């Protein structure tokens, strides 16, 4: 099976071709990602209208590039897969419309893929993750523990009750006048910082279950920053590094402890070969990765963390999600709707017509 995937749900425009022959490891023949960071830089966040226009302008080019890198024509594909949600509706629509056009033009099956399923199935693209496995999906818009039992079978064990960690990283960067996206810049600053200097909260650790909260962390960080600003009239380089390191340590501690609880719950299902996988942009963070790796080892579980490029938004994961769906017999048609919301544990089929 050879599938072209399109992704345009947030601020990355992406196209990729993935091939999978039964019994062999999947092959990423091409994976093109055009970011929009520069376009949104002046606004301190992603502006939906700007994102939608940029997707419309760049999608065609990304598809052309992905096909030419793969050395394939449309007629050599088996299906077109596209992110049909959740995400910023203008961008998702741009992708879905182009995918419909390509599928109709080339007479190929069309498959709408849930963006979160794309992230959650990535360990099966990069590693031999067999069902069931435990997944921590941790990104700019999401944070949840999922029990992945099948291509279309996800059970949510818990997650954030407010902000996603990626959002918290981005807001932290904004508060400290660091460039966006915040994750990589906060991580870079944190390398020279003292994670113990500021005692930031670890919310909800005293409560049972896997739910998390990250919005209080941002408020606490703001308070520490303002204390320093008041005292010194500015932020010293070391202060900023220490704030970043302390923030990162707090996020990492919460994710690690809640992973312990999720693993304990998952282990009661007594899987033979326990697998704990991470995905989503925040899992690119090395401090967080190694904390999760340690927790995983405590349970004797295999820890799977895809390469960084496949952790953040990309279209290879959408092409792969399409391949899995195709194998499961799923096909969409020209009535495929773009959905701003699409919770994973109801991911079987985009509901037609409602857009909700
Ligand atoms: P979603 O997938 O939930 O719709 P998204 O598309 O914004 O959200 P991703 O592209 O998966 O998410 O991840 C982007 C987020 O990951 C951003 O918030 C970014 O700051 C964060 N991120 C990227 N690299 C790192 C890093 N090294 N450390 C921490 N966070 C990071
Ligand atoms: Fe994403």
From TrEMBL:
Enzyme class, broadest EC rank: transferase
CDD domains: ASKHA_NBD_TsaD_bac
Region Disordered, residue ranges: 340-356
Cofactor: Fe(2+)
Keywords, comma-separated and alphabetical: Acyltransferase, Cytoplasm, Iron, Metal-binding, Transferase, tRNA processing
Catalytic activity: L-threonylcarbamoyladenylate + adenosine(37) in tRNA = N(6)-L-threonylcarbamoyladenosine(37) in tRNA + AMP + H(+)
Annotated binding of Fe cation, by residue: 115, 119, 313
Gene3D superfamilies: 3.30.420.40
Protein name per its UniProtKB record: tRNA N6-adenosine threonylcarbamoyltransferase
């Amino acid at each position: 099976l050879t599938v072209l995937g399109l992704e345009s749900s947030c601020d990355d425009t992406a196209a990729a071709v993935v091939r999978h022959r039964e019994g062999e490891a999947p092959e990423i023949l091409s994976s093109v990602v055009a970011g929009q960071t520069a376009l949104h830089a002046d606004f301190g966040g992603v502006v939906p209208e700007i994102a939608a226009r940029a997707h419309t302008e760049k999608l065609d080019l990304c598809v052309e590039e992905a096909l030419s890198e793969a050395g394939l024509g449309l007629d050599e594909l088996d299906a077109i897969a596209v992110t049909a949600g959740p995400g910023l509706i203008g961008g998702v629509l741009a992708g879905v419309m182009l995918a419909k056009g390509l599928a109709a033009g080339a007479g190929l099956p069309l498959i709408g893929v849930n963006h979160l399923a794309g992230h959650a199935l990535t360990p099966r693209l990069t590693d031999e993750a067999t069902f069931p496995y435990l997944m921590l999906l941790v990104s700019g818009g999401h944070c949840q523990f999922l029990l992945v039992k099948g291509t279309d079978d996800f059970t949510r064990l818990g997650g954030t009750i407010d902000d996603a960690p990626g959002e918290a990283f981005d807001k932290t960067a904004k508060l400290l006048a660091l460039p966006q996206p915040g994750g990589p810049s906060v991580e870079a600053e944190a390398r020279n910082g003292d994670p113990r200097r500021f005692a930031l909260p670890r919310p909800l650790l005293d409560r049972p279950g896997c739910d998390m909260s990250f919005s209080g962390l941002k408020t606490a960080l703001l308070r520490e920053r303002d204390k320093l600003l008041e005292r010194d009239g500015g932020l010293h380089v070391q202060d900023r590094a220490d704030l970043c390191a302390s923030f990162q340590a707090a996020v990492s501690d919460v994710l690690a402890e809640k992973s312990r609880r999720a693993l304990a719950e998952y282990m009661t299902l007594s899987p033979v070969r326990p697998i704990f996988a991470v995905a989503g942009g925040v899992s690119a963070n090395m401090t967080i990765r190694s904390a999760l790796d340690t927790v995983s080892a405590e349970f004797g579980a295999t820890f799977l963390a895809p390469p960084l490029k496949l952790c953040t938004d990309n279209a290879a994961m959408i092409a792969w999600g399409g391949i899995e769906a195709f194998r499961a017999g799923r096909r969409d048609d020209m009535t495929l709707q773009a959905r701003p919301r699409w919770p994973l544990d109801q991911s079987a089929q985009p509901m037609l017509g409602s857009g909700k």
